[in-house]
Design a protein that fits this description.
The chain has 10 helices and no strands. Helix 1 packs across helix 2, helix 3 runs antiparallel to helix 4 and helix 4 runs parallel beside helix 6.
C-alpha cells in the first residue's frame, strides 16, 4: 500500500470523526474542499473508506457551484460507494439482508440516467475549449485546456465504473462491454493530451487510466494503457519503482466487485 493511499484513509477517518455537518470556519471550509476530492477517489480502491449515502453527500455537496457540470459529476460520484455497498449486500445475502436487488438495480439505473447528460456536457465543453481557447491569454488557455480535458477523463472513468457495476447487477450485456471499451479508448487518447502537463497536471490520469484498464478486455488497448500508466508512475515514485497499474486495479476490482 502506497503512503499516499494511507494518508487519504486517515483523512477519511478524521472527517468521519469530526462529523459531516459542514465547516465551522474558513479553515475547516478550505480543509474540507481540499480533502473531499482525494477521499472520494481513494474510496474507489480502498474499502477502508466507508461512509453512508448521506455522509457522502454531506462530504461532497458543500461549496459546489450549483448547476456546474463539474459539480454535477461530483454529485454522481458521491452516490457510487454506498450504492456499491448495497449491491454487495444484496448479491451476497439476498434473503437475510433486507436489501432488495430490484431496488439496487433501480437506483443504479437512476444514477446512469443522471450521469449520461453530465458526460455529454463535459464532452461539449471540452470540444468548445479546443476550438476557442486560442482567444485566451496563454496561462488561462493552458489552465482551461488541462482542466477540461481531465474532467472528461474523470467523467468517462465514472461511466466505466457504472457499467462495471451494472454488469453484475443485470444480465451481462455485450453493449455494456462495448460502451466501456469506447470510453477506455477515449481516456487513453486524453492521456496523450494531458501528458503535456506532466508531472503535476497529469497525476489524476493515473486513476482514470486505472478505470480504463478495467473497462476493456482488448489486449492492445490494455497494453497501451499499461505503458502510459508506467510513465506517469515514474512522476510519483521514481524510475525504479515497480508499482504497476495492475497493482492499483486490484484495489479497484475488490472495491467495485459486489459479489
Amino acid at each position: 500500500m502506497k503512503v499516499s493511499q494511507n494518508h487519504y484513509v486517515g483523512a477519511a477517518q478524521i472527517l468521519k470523526s469530526r462529523g459531516l455537518s459542514g465547516p465551522q470556519d474558513d479553515f475547516e471550509r478550505t480543509l474540507l474542499l481540499t480533502l473531499r476530492g482525494p477521499v472520494v477517489l481513494s474510496a474507489f480502491c480502498d474499502s477502508r473508506i466507508r461512509f453512508t449515502k448521506d455522509e457522502w453527500q454531506a462530504l461532497v455537496l458543500p461549496g459546489l457551484n450549483n448547476g456546474s457540470v463539474d459539480g454535477d459529476l461530483m454529485i454522481c460520484l458521491s452516490q457510487m460507494p454506498a450504492l456499491m455497498d448495497r449491491a454487495r449486500v444484496a448479491l451476497r445475502w439476498p434473503d437475510e439482508s433486507g436489501v432488495s436487488l430490484h431496488e439496487v438495480r433501480s437506483a443504479m439505473q437512476g444514477l446512469h440516467d443522471e450521469y449520461r447528460p453530465v458526460l455529454r456536457k463535459l464532452r461539449e465543453r471540452w470540444e468548445g475549449t479546443k476550438r476557442k481557447t486560442m482567444a485566451l491569454v496563454p496561462e488561462s488557455r493552458r489552465m482551461a485546456h488541462c482542466h477540461h480535458s481531465r474532467m472528461v477523463a474523470f467523467g468517462l472513468s465514472v461511466g466505466v465504473i457504472i457499467n462495471h457495476l451494472r454488469g453484475y447487477l443485470e444480465h451481462d450485456d455485450e453493449t455494456l462491454h462495448q460502451d466501456s471499451t469506447r470510453m477506455s479508448e477515449e481516456i487513453l487518447e486524453l492521456s496523450d493530451v494531458v501528458a503535456a502537463y506532466r508531472p503535476l497536471g497529469s497525476l489524476a490520469m493515473i486513476l482514470f487510466l486505472g478505470a480504463a484498464w478495467i473497462g476493456t478486455a482488448d489486449p492492445i488497448i490494455k497494453a497501451s494503457i499499461e505503458i502510459r500508466a508506467a510513465e506517469l508512475f515514474t512522476d510519483i515514485y521514481g524510475p525504479n519503482d515497480t508499482f504497476t497499474i495492475e497493482d492499483m486495479d486490484v484495489g479497484w476490482l475488490k472495491r467495485f466487485t459486489p459479489s
